[in-house]
Amino acid sequence: MVMRTNTTHTTNPINATDATNTQAGTTVVPGGAAVAENLRLDFAKSAPKVFRALVGFDAAAREGLDPALVELIQIRASHLNHCAYCLHMHTNDARKAGESEDRLHMVAVWREARHFFTPREQAALALTEAVTRVADAGVPDDVYARAAAHFDEQELAHVLALILTINTWNRVALSTAKVAGTDGRG
Question: Which of 49, 76, 131, 171 has the lowest tally of Cβ within 10 angstroms?
Answer without folding.
Answer: 49
